[in-house]
Amino acid sequence: MDYNFREIEKKWQQYWRENKTFKARNVSEKPKYYVLDMFPYPSGAGLHVGHPLGYIASDIFARFKRLKGFNVMHPMGFDAYGLPAEQYAIQTGTHPAVTTEKNIARYREQLDQIGFSFDWSREVVTSDPFYYKWTQWTFIRLFEHWYDKTSDKARPVSELIGAFEKHGNDNLDAVCGEVSPFTAAEWKSMTEKERQQVLMHYRLAYLADTWVNWCPALGTVLANDEVKDGFSERGGHPVERKLMKQWSLRITAYAQRLLDRLDRIEWSESLKEVQRNWIGRSEGAAVFFRLAVSSQQSAVSRDELKTQNSELKTQNSELKTQNSELKTLIEVFTTRPDTLFGATFMVLAPEHELVMQIAAPERRPRVSEYVEWAKNRSERDRMAEVKRITGEFTGAYAVNPLNGQEIPIWVADYVLAGYGTGAIMAVPGHDSRDFAFARFFDLPIVQVVMKPGEEISDTHQWSESYDAKEGIMVNSGFMNGMQVKDAITAAIRKIEEMKAGFGTVNYRLRDAIFSRQRYWGEPFPIYYKDGMPYPLDDSQLPLELPGVDKYLPTETGEPPLARAKNWTTKEGYPLETNTMPGFAGSSGYYLRYMDPWNKDAYFSKEANEYWQDIDLYVGGDEHGTGHLIYARFWNMFLYDIGLVCCEEPFRKLINQGKIQGRSNFVYRINGTNTFVSFNLKDQYDTTALHVDIEIVDNDILDTEAFRKWRPDYENAGFILEDGRYVCGWEIEKMSKSKHNVQSPDDLIAKYGADTLRMYEMFLGPVELSKPWDTKGIEGVFRFLKKYWRLFYDENGNFNVSTVTPFRSELKILHNAIRKIGSDIERFSFNTAVSAFMICINELTDLKCNKREILEPLNILLSPFAPHITEEIWQQLGHSGTISYVSFPEFNEEFVREDTFNYPVSFNGKMRFQMELPVGVTAAEAEAAVLAASESQKWLAGNPPKKVVFVPKKIINVVI
RNA sequence: GCGGAUGUGGCGUAAUUGGUAGCCGCGCCAGACUUAGGAUCUGGUGCCGAAAGGCGUGGGGGUUCGAGUCCCUUCAUCCGCACCA
């Protein structure tokens, strides 16, 4: 019998399905092992060969762990909410659920063909109400909690109310929005609505006016990680900035923990670095600059200032007193408080709330014009014109708290509203952006840091700022002569003494905007009463997505859900019309897999305590600033409220690389329908055109097929070289338009799933991106056929002997056991495949068909090629699946050697080899080498200066 | 600009972690079997050289008996962040 992969693979896939072979139980004596793949969004295009790469790696690992005696859970599901299905719905009117269901079926079919050991009984689909009930449930919990910095965890809002009733909001260290201080009495005198407004500043899921990334083409707001270079990641549409009332998640409360816990998890250094940068911690100081008296007089009115002033956020309780006095303070954040003496002006972001109020009356029109212009500039324009310096003087002055100097306050869009306080003290001498601004508007530049060993110089002569983080302070009063590092500490101490500021930490991380003005997402379990949002009762979950007549915003610009009939509670209160973003459902799906059938809870405590966390998570690194940070936050919150037992969900994470396409090109001579072969193309004026890789073999074009490929090529002419048309090639992204897509279905039809699995692993390390080389797959196919022939003779009869193996055969087997076992543990699947090839080549050379060798080998291979090994396992006389047998034990005994073939080198160059006993002494080895006839040529009669002998490594003769 | 990663045959890669550079596969070359070969099998294949031998891990320098591996420096490519104070 030949290796009939089609029949074998169908047979075993059916067997696994019927016998629920990979169903994991939540109770077991075995140790648990949870292997997870990032679940896919089921797109209409189906899978290409790049998608399963990570799934194959994790599947091999899952199967390996089963053989090693673990109770393995390896679930799969679908991230079903996504823009493509919705865009399609807008165009065609087809409900996104219909499209999604169809795509899921297609994905499922493709995945099944590859022979994954997924436990489909645990399948989670994010758009299924049975699942998203728990996404909504978690949202309500977020709404009902606030972040207490004292205990450094989330606590119920009910406790917060208790605290307010006792002490107002004093003595409370919470992560919150801008809240004025109030007493217990004041709290008690507030109306229900006022209380809700106050609480909203504390909730972990909160509604607030926020500057958002608004994408008009998609008609929705996007999260920061969904915007790339001013365009939407999905679809590539322009994105604008807009102030809108939005739900947000207070992920910033967790910034420090998200940063610190990175040290505890096994992720690649590069991915951790991406997260560190995204969180963007910087240490520095908050400094309060008083408005100069003259400026206060020019400002609108003292009353207005007072209001403004009392809303200023202070994080230091001592400062609160000062702040509520009648003085306008502008808070800036700086990482370099040491350079305070060099602050020669201040800059506010155009969106800064004080800009218009402090502007001098005569400057107000120009300031207002500038602010309008800057606010309406698109993200894209801002980015494209980073070098362009713009700004406007407000006419107001601020007082430097350290030296009493009055400095002009400017407004400029190089200061971002979203970072720090949206206001900076400009130190042009030591910050390149401030320097450029100062030069452009002719503002003074003062040197306050000096390079060690240099003199103070005239800043007028400077061509750039001195941005160094090291140096000696000058022109800085009490800090003169200090090192920068010490001066920072001294400056902070000083401003704290003066109550003009305090040391603090800032994060680049922003709260996650959680509303989308779209249809295809989880509805918020929220209704409005008196204009304030309230959560639905848990008993009313899930709040199911209603039907709508059109998947578009209403005529008045409300989100699509506003079209739904009776979109209210039973009592008639209106329900929220926004939906949740894509990352909502994927932030906690891995928890649901632990207990997906649970009707009464997200998951049971027992299930969570059994599975704990994910031992191995495999997915792409493009989720570094999105899913992987939201999910960590989500999990940390659930940890705080005692729902999950592990603070970090993904203990070990592997980023699989991408598989790039290998495109082929033909070269059309311009203005003709003639195509010239690759090596002759330089003689002509040509245009390179993508050609379908299906009609190219080994870079040789099938010219007949090419003529048939497209009507316009029917009469194409060719200029050949050596009678063939050679195509050019390039490595590019795999995409339909480049005609370089390899579908796994075609390859499985031609070579089988086992070959595809092994070839994808053979390409190179999983983490690396690499081009797909269609030709190479045949090497792996040959390998499996060769493997088959170890068990079957020339006549196709199963022929395995019970003869006792030779030592040489045992050595081959046990070397493979050791090598492959350790390779899998290290996720080095490419070297494992190559070790299999070596092993099979050697056994074929020995014509070994002995059961004692082949049976363990078959188990060894089963994680990689599950179908062929199941079949052979059965042929070997076993019943049932190979999936739960034991991984072969390595026995040192069989690989022990008596001699070692020493490379002998002269001055580090290997010249010949010499076989010596393993226990040889240095003196014996030296004598043997020097006596060898080959040595005479290299010694040329001279005695060696030295002989280095490293046991079982090398002998080096120095001459 | 900042951060991260990667540079080894024509191509994908390997190298027990400082010890024989190029394993395994593709491609290529030669041969066998065949009516045929885009099937199968066998052998060869880093570069230069007739050979002896020399040269070789992006470039330059260093440490070492010995460097793809460690150190310094430089270049290139890819990815992430980017007016982040």
Coarse morphology: globular
Mean of all residue-level pLDDT scores: 89
| Count of DSSP strands | 36
Low-confidence stretches: 298-327
Q: Helix/strand-derived class?
A: alpha+beta
Query: Residue share in helices?
Result: 25-40%
Largest sheet: 7 strands, mixed
Alpha-carbon distance between the two ends:
62 Å
Beta content: 15-25%
Supply the number of helical segments. 32
Radius of gyration, in Å, reads 35 Å
Describe the model:
The structure is a single chain. Helix content is 35%, strand content 18%. By secondary structure, the protein is of the alpha+beta class. Strands 11, 12, 13, 14, 15, 16 and 19 form a seven-stranded mixed β-sheet that branches. Strands 25, 26, 27, 30, 31 and 32 form a six-stranded mixed β-sheet that branches. A four-stranded parallel β-sheet has the order 2-1-23-24, with helices on one face. Helix 25 packs across helix 28 and helix 27 runs antiparallel to helix 28.
Write a brief structural summary:
The protein is α+β, with helices and mostly antiparallel strands.
Essential attributes:
959 residues, alpha+beta, seven-stranded mixed sheet, six-stranded mixed sheet, 36 strands, RNA-binding
Topology of this protein?
Layout: H1 5-19, E1 32-37, H2 52-67, E2 71-73, H3 83-92, H4 96-113, H5 129-143, E3 145-148, E4 153-156, H6 157-167, E5 174-175, H7 184-189, H8 192-200, E6 205-215, E7 220-222, E8 227-228, E9 231-232, E10 240-249, H9 255-260, H10 269-279, E11 281-291, H11 293-298, H12 302-311, H13 317-324, E12 329-334, E13 345-348, H14 355-358, H15 364-376, H16 379-384, E14 392-399, E15 406-411, E16 423-426, H17 432-441, E17 449-450, E18 472-473, H18 484-497, E19 501-507, E20 512-513, E21 526-529, E22 532-535, H19 582-586, H20 589-592, H21 605-611, E23 616-619, H22 627-640, E24 653-655, E25 659-669, E26 674-676, E27 686-691, E28 696-697, E29 700-701, H23 703-709, E30 717-719, E31 728-732, H24 744-751, H25 753-762, E32 770-771, H26 777-791, H27 807-825, H28 829-845, H29 851-861, H30 866-875, E33 899-906, E34 909-917, H31 922-931, H32 933-939, E35 946-950, E36 954-958
Parallel strand pairs: 1-2, 1-23, 13-15, 23-24, 25-32, 26-30, 33-36
Antiparallel strand pairs: 3-4, 3-5, 6-7, 6-10, 8-9, 10-20, 11-12, 11-14, 11-19, 13-16, 14-15, 17-18, 21-22, 25-26, 25-27, 25-31, 28-29, 33-34, 35-36
This protein binds one RNA strand of 85 nucleotides through helix 10, strand 12, strand 16, helix 17 and strand 32.
